[in-house]
Structure prediction request, 948 residues.
Amino acid sequence: MSLVTEIDYGTPASRSDKMVTLTIDGIETHVPEGTSIMRAAMEVGTKIPKLCATDMLESFGSCRLCLVEIKGRAGTPASCTTPVAPGMIVYTQTDRLKALRKGVMELYISDHPLDCLTCAANGNCELQTEAGNVGLRDVRYGYEGANHLTEKKDESNPYFSYDPAKCIVCNRCVRACEEVQGTFALTIDGRGFGSRVSAGQAEPFLESECVSCGACVQACPTATLIEKSVIEIGQAEHSAVTTCAYCGVGCSFKAEMRGEELVRMVPYKDGKANHGHSCVKGRFAWGYANHRDRILKPMIRAKVSDPWREVSWDEAFAYAASEFKRIQEKYGKTSVGAITSSRCTNEETYLIQKLVRAGFGNNNVDTCARVCHSPTGYGLGTAFGTSAGTQDFDSVDEADVIMVVGANPTDGHPVFASRMKKRLREGAKLIVLDPRRIDLVRMPHIEADYHLPLQPGTNVAVLTALAHVIVTEGLVNEAFVRERCDPAEFQDWAEFVADERHSPEAVEKVSGVPAELIRKAARLYATGGNSAIYYGLGVTEHSQGSTTVLAIANLAMATGNLGRNGVGVNPLRGQNNVQGACDMGSFPHELAGYRHISDAGARAIYEKLWGVTLDKEPGLRIPNMLDAAVEGTFKGIYIEGEDILQSDPDTHHVASGLAAMECVIVQDLFLNETANYAHIFLPGSTFLEKDGTFTNAERRIQLVRKVMSPKNGYADWEITVKLAEAMGVPMNYRHPSEIMDEIAATTPSFAGVSFAKLDKVGSVQWPCNEKAPEGTPIMHIGGFKKGKGKFVLTEYVPTDERSGPRYPLLLTTGRILSHYNVGAQTRRTANVVWHEEDRLEIHPHDAEQRGVNEGDWVKVASRAGETTLRALVTDRVAPGVVYTTFHHPSTQVNVVTTDFSDWATNCPEFKVTAVQISRSNGPTDWQERYREQAEQSRRIFEAAEAAE
Ligand code: SF4
Ligand code: SF4
Ligand code: SF4
Ligand code: FES
Prediction:
């Protein structure tokens, strides 16, 4: 294997359709108008020396190394900032240019440490390469004069260091932070010789606004900004392109390796979801793969009170098979089931549903998408006929109005957020519907045009009020509705939303959003050009989650914002493979490709292939499995990659369900909270240790490539294969590509997908079949999958979870950038420096009423339970609303969330819990135990780091 390298063309590609012909060093070439001379030269294979230019950034023209001569023009312009012109004749290699470049380089090197041999970037440093390219052999000025060689390193960031002695002030880092990331954390302080890169107000990186995305590190042409892992391990020898295993953006990375050791993850420029950008998690937070907490041997125990006993894989599989067989013989076929995870690959998920359907003989399979985006599947499937988002991420570049509903992209989907911010800086308008003032509402160079700070639980009321304005003020796109939607259903809907009870003035009373704000936002969405809606779990995790998705779909259809670039309805999927988990048939009522289990034709395909008869009745959903366990009819479960005790609502109920089962199999990297109730633990593998595919929020299927051997011995798909075989279900797959072949052969929307194609083209978005062999970036062009778009009436039904005298505040939950879900992975990385614990955000007014000060311990009590955490007093939340994250088991926020759920899909109502807050003396006993464990792990971790 070799290192995957990408050509750096120096400046971004021009999007112009108009071509220009010019001659470079005697070679005639044709490039789009607006292309720089540097890029045009690179495209014909002529490299012009450069330092401040890179094709991820707009050209800047500061280093003066890329000078060229142009026939008929005086001087030596910089090729990175000079666009091509028709008939231009360019010379890149004259004696005059060589002398100029050598002189420029000589000045740089006279103020640069001469430590190439011991520098971590040796062999991968653009300054070193270009010094060689321009033929610099000595420096005439000596090194004694004024210089920056003794400036102090900044090692504050856990993942990269900044060594100003090596800085050539090319400004690439500053521009990367602005243009790519959109954080504006860096600046060049001072002037002339005194110019230095500065984070924030000349602060250490860790204390500045820096969000540790790594864009500056990637842009830096020297070892000034460099990954600490490269300093520790050395330069990589080989690499493979793979896909991030954290969020639904699905960033592509080059996993750069030395032998079987991961050196660094470098965002892949050709990745179609991220175009070379990343966030702190995918870029840096992969150390959990080597964490000492990983369990590498299978373990079993007869009772959960027994100690674990390490066993061979064969014994573990045989024990699991005998237990499930025993349970089914004693309690019946439907007494067992499985839960797949959105962390797993498509192939793994497919195998688990196959094991359940073909092996267990029932449909008791569900996925953690149940607790996040199941309403998306239901809502978009009902309205448009396809249970998925309508656009690719690139589409946002053509949006004129962006409406963000119940999502916090800068924390939850950071790489897409950077893209969105770029479009907003270019002038797109922004509407935010969120109870909390998320970062997008106001940040450097961005301010929402309208922020609708609605009360948690009132999404449907506000979205229907937006529709009221659109209908009653004559803003409906009549032509679109006439051509694309069911007219009778539209008419019913228009009459419904026009009713006075849906007016902004009426809705102001329940939502707290001023009527005028609703009116203005509606007018902007309907008339602002291309309007695109992006939404998240703040939409779905409600008792009316499915209704809210339908309300969003109604808005898009009524205004004709579907079926082209720049518009659409876009669920920002949470985990890396939420879309894939849903696609692969892991819901109890659906086979792969969203075919209902009652569909005899779809069942027949699998019955023939697998040689079994499938049950035509939908199986149990996760909450139903737990209910049935408490009732005594559900006794065995196989859970892969999900920690339901921490991630699902009403922890006490989850615990009761698990405790009532006779065989709980957990397959995971770590002994998670659910494993406390497990009888069999099967150690899982990381995404670095297996092949497969993930499908991101754009329906984009991308390869996950194995770059190291599984430390536990088997990739997860192999574990399921062996478990299935022990249970008597033949699974003769030699590689995940064969599983994908079966998926393609049996699922119409995946018919054109294969590992070979993905290897060749990088990625495809489903549907990918005969009609669309290269995939489908934008859905519903010209018509909906289901024929006519369906308007559904969206009556607002207040949740039964209401604040009152006993629980007067509404708790809502969310994520933070540095952590991921239950934090099992990110808590085992240096990301803990940014977020050591979950905090409760409370408005100053509510805090004062309760005598709560910043940092105080507070008790959060609901009718389901109580927990204790520290207060963060802030006006980001409105009075009456409190907010927290759920990343730390020492907080277990889901102890307080309730068992209310979406009427259509049972997606839990995580986002609305009535609570009371009171001062507390500190954590409860059970929390203290977790804190001690966490503190102990941190100390061991730090000691080991120091020893290394
Ligand atoms: S830190 Fe690197 S990218 Fe930034 S100015 Fe210095 S050399 Fe250029
Ligand atoms: S790591 Fe990202 S946010 Fe931090 S300074 Fe660099 S580019 Fe900016
Ligand atoms: S944005 Fe999501 S997919 Fe991309 S690097 Fe971050 S966590 Fe990974
Ligand atoms: S690369 Fe053109 S001026 Fe620096």
Observations:
- Residues 244, 246-247, 249-251, 274, 278-279, 281-282, 414-415 surround iron/sulfur cluster (ligand 3) (CB under 6 Å).
- The CA atoms of residues 326 and 692 lie 33 Å apart.
- The chain has 29 helices and 36 strands.
- The chain has a mean pLDDT of 92.
